Amino acid sequence: MSARLTARDLTLRYGDRVVSTRLSLDVPDRAFTAVVGPNACGKSTLLRAFVRLLRPSDGEVLLDGKNVGSFPGKGLARELGFLPQDPVAPEDVRVRQLIARGRFPHQSLFATWSEEDERAVLDAMTAAGVAGLADRPVQELSGGQRQRVWVALVLAQKTPYLLLDEPTSFLDIAHQYQLLSLLARLRDEGRTVIAVLHDINQACRYADHLVALRDGRIVAEGAPSDIVDAELMKEVFDLPSVVVPDPVTGTPMVVPSC
Questions:
Q1: In a structure prediction context, what are the per-residue pLDDT tens digits for the chain, which is 258 residues long?
Q2: Extended strands (E) in the chain
Q3: Do the Cβ atoms of 174 and 134 come closer than 8 Å?
Q4: CA 19/CA 14 separation, integer angstroms
Q5: Which residues contact 150 (CB under 8 A, 6 or more apart)?
Q6: CB 18, CB 10: distance < 8 Å
Q7: Which CATH number fits domain 1-79+161-174+190-258: 3.40.50.300, 3.40.50.410, 3.40.50.10740, 1.10.10.10?
C-alpha cells in the first residue's frame, strides 16, 4: 500500500519522560489502520505527533514528503481531521453550532457560509446519527451523544484523513459497531482512517492494517489475519488467549484463556 502520511525515526516525549524512540510508520492510503496496545504505550502520543499537537524531539512526520510543521494551520486542517480523547465543548454551544466549527479550515477571512458548508454539516449530523439533536445544548447530552457529536464535527471537516483517538469511548455496543461500520464505509469511499481502539476484536474485524504498540515501540504491524495470534497477545497485552476465526467475518477473534 502507498503512503502519503509517514513517521520517520520519531522520538516523542513529555518533558523528561520519553514515550517512543526512533519510531517509524507508513500509514497506508485509503485504508483503515487501527492502533492497539495497553494503556500508556504511546498510542495517543503517536496520533498527537501526526497532527503536530506534539513536536517530536527527533525525527519527523511527513505528508506528501513535507514536514507537517511546514504546513499553515488551515492547510493541515484541510488534510487531517483529528478527534482527541477528551474534547471539551465551549459553554452554552448547541450541537449544530459545534459541528459547524468543523468547517473553519475551509473558511477565508471574507467568506460567507455557503451551501457546501451547510450540506457538509447536515451530512455529518446524519452520518453520526445526531441530526435529531441539532438544537440541543451539548452540555445536556449524555456521554455517548456528545461523542457522536464530536465525530460529526470531524466528519464535517471533510478531510482525506481521519485520525480518531478512542472514538468508541462512551458509546453503547450498538453505537460502537455503527460508528466502526461508518468508518469502514468512509474508507471504502477513499478516505484514510487511523483510529486508536481498545477492543482488539473490533480492530480485527474493521481494520485493514493493524499496528500493535508496547512501551512506545511497534511490536507488529500488518493485516490482522497475518499478525494476530496468541503469541502477539501475550507479548503486547500479557494476555493468555486462544485466537479463533470470527464466526461472522472470519477475521481473528481473541478469546482470553485466563
A1: 679 999 999 999 999 999 999 999 999 999 999 999 999 999 999 999 999 999 999 999 999 999 999 999 999 999 999 999 989 999 999 999 999 999 999 987 777 789 999 999 999 999 999 999 999 999 999 999 999 999 999 999 999 999 999 999 999 999 999 999 999 999 999 999 999 999 999 999 999 999 999 999 999 999 999 999 999 999 999 999 999 999 999 999 999 998
A2: 5-14, 17-27, 32-36, 58-63, 66-67, 80-83, 161-165, 192-196, 209-214, 217-222, 241-245, 252-256
A3: no
A4: 7
A5: 83, 87
A6: no
A7: 3.40.50.300
C-alpha cell at 4: 502519503
* C-alpha neighbours within 13 Å on the C-beta side of residue 190: 3
